[in-house]
Amino acid sequence: MLGEQIIKGMAVTARNFFGSYVSKERLTTVQYPEEHLAQKENTRQFPFLVYDGDNWEKGLRCVACQICEKECPPKCIYIVKSKDKKPDYKGQPQIYPLTFDIDISVCMSCQICVEVCPFESIKMDTKFELSTDDRFGGLLLTKDKLAKPNSYYQEMHPHDAAESDAVIAAEKAKAEAKAKATAEAKIKAETEAKAKAAAVAATAPIAAPAPTTQPPAAK
Amino acid sequence: MTPLQACLLISALLFAIGFAGAVTRRHAILVLIGIELMLNAANLNLIAFWRFGPHPEALTGFIFVLFSMAMAGAEAAVGLALIIAIYRHKKTSNLDEVKELKG
Amino acid sequence: MPPFFIITGIVTLLGAAFAMSLRNLVHCALAMAVAFSGIAALYLQLDAQFVGFAEILVYVGAIAILIVFAILLTRSGEAPEKSVLTSGWMAGIAVSAMVFTMLGWAVLNSSAIPKETPPAPVATVKNVGDALMTKFVLPLEIIGLVLTAAMIGAVIIALKEDSQKSKSEDGGQQ
Amino acid sequence: MFDKFDQIFVTALHWLVSFLPEGLRPFVSALICIAFVMSVFPGVFALTTVLERKILGRIQNRYGPNRVGIPFTKIRLCGFGQFIPDGIKSLTKEDIVPRAADKVVHFLAPVVMLVPVLLAYAVLPFGKHMTITDYDAGLLFFFAVGGAVEVSVFMAGWSSRNKYSLLGAMRAIAQMVSYEIPLILSAVTVVMVVGSLNLSEIVKHQNNYTFGIAHWHVFTPWGLVGFILFFIASLAESNRTPFDLPEAESEIIAGYFTEYSGFKFALFFLGEYLGMFAIIGLGITLFLGGWTSPVSFLTWIPSYLWFLSKLMTIVFVFIWIRGTLPRLRMDQLMNFAWKFMLPLALINILVAGIWHYMAADWPRWLVCSAIIFGAYAILGRGLMQNQNFGKRIYRYAE
Most buried among B28, C171, D42, D333, using CB within 10 Å? Predict the structure, then answer.
């Protein structure tokens, strides 16, 4: 009969219409500014700089090696190296960035800077509500805006942060081990030298007073 | 001037305009429009005489106009069908070029 | 003579004049619609509302549209380059001017024109319907017949020749 | 008490006019009526644009607009303030006229569209004693001015010098002319039974109650069929889905108003919706009892509220249909008008005659229903059988 299918179709749409008022599952739309979907762990938006400790200026991991600046496809990173050196987390004196700017109106979120950074210093942020009414200054993130603590990173991307922490810890351990080894070697050399000296001293009539205080310091 | 005379003058002028157009224009559709205008002039006359005449309650002029409108509709339908048929046949609707009986 | 009557009359006549003198056919048809609307307004002022609305329904709603369709179907929507007037247009204008002078003279000088305006007659739909169904029932039937015949005729004339015939014509041309 | 509330607008008008000298009264009261129509129905239009988007959204399991409320506040009004920015946007947009366009006709088309549409409101009875001109042949007036809309559609389509516009205009005119016939024929049944073309008279005829239920025409066999035919034809007349071929976005951009922008587009939009309300109002008046209440114990609700609620209900059904049915093809459209609706409307006229002359008893219900159902089944079967699913044969105009 003519019109039968029309009525069936109308029934379907009516069910949708009234159903959307009763069941919340039908309405898949998220009312965005008020409601937010939980972010996936792999969300990545724009880069930021990680720092350790409480002071962002001191703890910044970046050493201004400029690899990211060179690798950045849209060239949105701008770095000015410092002339002097500051000790990094390993205690080594390193160059640090005087200026570190990322123009996120140019950034294409490719994450290459993160991939190439040898110091676990630049990472991807998940913040995306970055709109501003100042389209030149407002989208140019400077060092102070980019710097975020490691704890923030750990909270945001726990897995990646753990990995990066492990790398850093390994580096640190390696560096410490190296330092220790060098220190030990130094001590060894020193003790050897001292032993030699002692031996020399034993043979010599004058004894050195220093070797008595040496062992606790070496430990 | 009485209202009746005004109506009649308007209708006379309308008739003259329609007549001039029907006689002078080349395009067949315009000739038809001219004829429609002339018909309307006649209708206006009829209505004017019905309104200002002695026996309006008889509705003679009124009904005459209704019939004449129906005729105009029929005429327009047939006329335009003819024009389209001629256009299809001769690829023109210019009356100067449609004077041969040989198809 | 109410001023509104004069204005409608002038609009009607201007519409008619434009319908007959513009170069572009579509403009002519639209001007014709204006003229018909003006005539409908004149009917309304002559207390013939039914006829006035029938005029709009038939002429503006149907015939104007029909003419516009015919214009587009005959590809005459653009203004022609050649002259739009026939060769003997001077004579045509002269004859129509003569017609108008004669009619106007007759209208203005006739003794048959009643001097006083009678009261407005009542032409309700009911009266018209009664008249159509009693006194004028035969003309009504005939009009119905004529309309049917005209419709069938128009369809037959405008109908494309059947495919066999056109095929043989094509063959003949080749 | 309720009666006073019902007549509040009429009394207000009389009160306002009573301060004026005798000669000015008709003129001023006409002006007030025009202002009433010009303010109420565009308001309903504004509401409908939001409502349409919201209902369509809900049908598709979305929210639809729900943000814009009162500006500079946090009040959202469920998004019903949306029409204000929409209106400001469309009124302040640049008005672009194509270089090749026929400037005068292009300019006049929206105006010519809006004038007959607004004129049509002159004869609609919005409430008890609330008809602006209670004219003797109101129905004829309505159809006459409705016919003038086609001219404006052609003007818009032709003057734009755009093939999409012209195609849209040609489709629109063909559709309007075809569907005007079932529209008028379905209205003829009411005229036959009531015996008047006066719309107030038609409403008065339906304002009787037996067993507390109103004598609406839709509650009779011929009235039901007439109403359905009228409803479908009015869908087509107002170019609504599934008959929105004239402005099929996916085929011809926006039909005859492709080349319109800014204020002129807004006028077309307004004209289209006002035309839809007018034709719905006519359908309500003819078949759904106009401003009368369906049951006798609800007669205390003001008549204009009944009219408005019926109007909004039918608008809702229009939107519901828009959310359900896909667009028809041109040949399906024409087939439906000429092969199904026209014969059914003619049979319906016959049925209305039988209904009028048979005794008011159960046999007339039986006979009329049987005729209509038989005709419906046969015509429907014919329409379904004639569907040609094979390759289409195209015929071009030469």
Answer: B28
Spell out which residues of chain C touch residue D136, defining contact as CB-CB under 8 Å: 49, 124-125
Residues D82-127 pLDDT 10s: 888 888 888 888 888 888 888 888 888 888 888 889 888 888 888 8
Which domain covers residue B57, as residue numbers? 3-97
Nearest CB to C57; choose among D136, D144, D196: D144
pLDDT at A205: 56
What is the spatial distance between Cα D271 and Cα A42, in angstroms, rounded to a whole number? 52
**How, if at all, do strands A122-124 and A47-51 pair?**
antiparallel
- First-to-last alpha carbon distance for chain C, in angstroms, is 68
Domain holding C31, by residue range, is: 1-78
Number of domains in chain C: 2
Q: Do C125 and D154 touch (CB under 8 A)?
A: no
Neighbouring residues of A87: CB distance < 8 A, sequence distance ≥ 6: A93, A94
Output D276 or B53, whichever has higher pLDDT: D276
Chain A residue nearest residue D61, CA to CA: A27
The answer, yes or no, to whether C and B have at least 3 beta-carbon pairs within 8 Å is yes
Mutating which of A1, A2, A30 best tests the D interface, going by the most D Cβ atoms within 10 A? A2
Q: Could A12 and D383 be called an inter-chain contact, meaning their C-beta atoms sit closer than 8 Å?
A: no
Cα–Cα distance for residue pair B98/B89, rounded to 1 Å: 10
pLDDT in tens, C109-159: 877 777 777 777 777 788 888 888 888 899 899 999 999 999 898 888 877
Place of tokens 């839809």: D276
Helices (H), chain C: 3-21, 25-45, 49-55, 64-73, 89-109, 125-133, 137-158, 163-173
How far is residue C155's CA from residue C113's CA, in Å, rounded to a whole number? 45
**CB neighbours (10 Å) of residue D286?**
27
CATH architecture of A47-170: 2-Layer Sandwich (3.30)
Write the DSSP string, A3-68.
Answer: THHHHHHHHHHHHHHHHHHH-TTT-----TTT--PPPPTT---SEEEEE-SS-HHHHB------HH
Strand-pairing partners, residue D325, are none
Confidence band (pLDDT; 50, 70, 90) for B27?
confident
pLDDT surpasses 70 at A80:
yes
Whether C66 and C136 map to the same domain: the answer is no
* Residue of B17, A59, B43 whose CA lies nearest to C95: B17
CA neighbor of C49 nearest in space, from A7, D197, D155: D197
Taking residues A195-204, what's their average pLDDT?
A: 72
Kindly determine whether residue C121 and residue B50, on different chains, have CB atoms separated by under 8 Å. yes
Is 0.90 surpassed by the pTM of this model? Answer: no
Hey, of D140, D152, D160, which one would you mutate to test binding to chain C, going by the most C CBs within 10 A of its CB?
D140
With contacts defined as CB-CB under 8 Å, which chain A residues touch D320? Answer: 10, 13-14, 17
So what's the pLDDT on residue D388? 59
Task: Say yes or no for a CB contact (<8 Å) between B10 and C29.
Answer: no
Nearest in space to D386 (alpha carbons), one of D334, D325, D324: D334
Question: Measured at the alpha carbon of residue D318, what is the angle toward residues D305 and D277, in degrees to the nearest 5?
Answer: 50
Domain annotation covers residue C95? no
CB spacing of B26 vs C132 below 8 angstroms: no
Distance from CA of B100 to the nearest CA of C (A): 17
Question: Which CATH number does the domain housing residue C52 bear?
Answer: 1.20.120.1200
| Chains adjacent to A (≥3 CB pairs closer than 8 angstroms) | D
Q: Token pair of B3, please?
A: 């209202």
Identify which of C13, C39, C96 has the shortest CB distance to residue B20.
C96
Domain spans, chain D? 42-385
Asked, for residue B102, whether it belongs to a domain, the answer is no
Number of compact structural domains in chain B: 1
For residue A203, what pLDDT is reported? 67
Is D252's Cβ below 8 Å from some Cβ in A?
no
